[in-house]
Amino acid sequence: MPDVSRLAAVLPPLHFVANGGYVWPEIREDRLDALTESVLAERCISSYDNWILQSYVRFRQVGLRPTLSERPVAGKVNIIDGWHLRISNRPAGAFVLVTRADSRRPFMANYWIEQNGLRGTGRCHTWIPHWPQPGILRRDESRGVEIRTLGYKGLATNLDAAFGDVGLGPLLSKVGVTLNHDLEDRSSGKLGWNDYRTLDVCLAVRNLTRTDASGKPASKLVNAWAAGVPALVGPEPAFLELRKTNLDFIVVRSRDDVVAAIANLRNDPELYTAMVENGLRRSRDFSLDRVRDRWIEVLAGPVRSLFDRWQRTPDAIKALRWGIGAPLEKGSRRYHRYQAHNGVRLF
Question: Could you tell me if 268 and 184 lie in one domain?
């Protein structure tokens, strides 16, 4: 457990900005003890859930007392999701830290956080790994190295159609493998994104545009590592960025690639076991404590420095910056929206 008094001394005052309609009931009612890892597993769906609400909870869990409301406030570092940043909810005098997620470049941010390290680190931005999937239930080791199920965990809109039930399902059936898609189902409140107990291989393939893919996190890979399940992934930049050896994952670009990869793992049980053991080792670098430490490093370092400087900045200069940033923000939003849907795709 971090030293709370030490953290309070080095961190700037923190305020999370959250639209009331999206805030979890446990947060609204100040019942954070009810947010067990299994409950968090069902709550954390969108980038908003993970970057804003989960971050707020993770800081509260170690004894810090960040505040939370629907609008930024003066005198604090206001942490807001990139998809919810608007000109209308960005006061000129507020210091704003944007968790960019996979949205556009936030020109009205004082500082922003990327989901991967592909854009490097600059004076006003850096990257922090996504929080790990809460409450991961590892693959049942009694299943051995037999491959009977292949699973995708995530949003239905992100799954490439070629790898769905109609495209990939019949091919897998011919080799005795069941395709298991855990897609979002907000109506039932049950996602299963944390449950890998009956999964033998994880599939993470999204035929995104290059613009869209460039901002995605490597969460599906990191979660598979932590769950003890080999991963078949598409050629997304965030996955390729983390690759150290061939044991980290297998890249697939087609349904035939998937079938071939499964055959390779079946024919080489030692490779399967080595990928599992390697993944468990790699996942330690993305543990809850490691990610929280990275947050603290960024907030206590570059963010604190910029915030202290911002507090000394004349109001007229703050207003001028707002005036310059507003039109750039509009243009950035339009450009990103177009490229994310119409740009060149990964494959």
Answer: yes
Q: Is residue 347 part of a domain?
A: no
Residues of the chain with pLDDT under 70: 1, 184-190
Boundary of a domain, candidates 271, 286, 301: 286
Cα separation of 322 and 328, whole Å?
Answer: 10
On whether both 32 and 13 belong to a single domain, the answer is yes
Spell out the SS3 assignment of 28-73: HCCCHHHCCHHHHHHHCCCHHHHHHHHHHHHHHHCCCCCEEECCCC
Residues 6+ apart with CB under 8 A from 120: none
Q: Report the chain's C-alpha Rg in angstroms.
A: 21
Task: Name the pTM for this structure.
Answer: 0.94
Domain span at residue 68 reads 4-132+288-342
Tell me the per-residue pLDDT of 47-65, one tens digit each, with 9 for 90 and over. Answer: 899 999 999 999 999 999 9
Interval 159-187: pLDDT, tens: 887 888 778 989 999 999 999 887 755 44
In terms of C-beta density within 10 A (0-12 exposed, 13-18 middle, 19 or more buried), how is residue 137 classed?
Answer: middle
Instruction: Compute, in degrees rounded to 10, the torsion defined by CA atoms 308, 312, 313, 316.
Output: 140
Examine the domain organization and report whether 174 and 273 are in the same domain: yes
The domain boundary, picked from 248, 267, 286, lies at 286
